[in-house]
Sequence to fold (82 residues):
Amino acid sequence: MTDVPTGPTWIRAAAEGDEGPGPWIEIAFGPDGLVHLRETGDPTTVVTTTRSKWDAFAKGVRAGEFDHFVEGVDERDTGTRP
Fold:
């Protein structure tokens, strides 16, 4: 398990001005080329990946490669997704 650097700047993946209730995913880019992800509801559990894997994931999201995961899901649905 990779140690999370102390004092990372966490970026919340939520619409600007959205106050809650969450939970949201937060992302921190480490100086060592690693990307750390956590859920606001459980901030002590952190998943770490490489910057190149994160970039590939982000490009896939932009290209619509994951759209099938949310087909038929109401935008207001905050429950468990299939």
Observations:
- Strands lie at 11-12, 25-29, 34-39, 42-50.
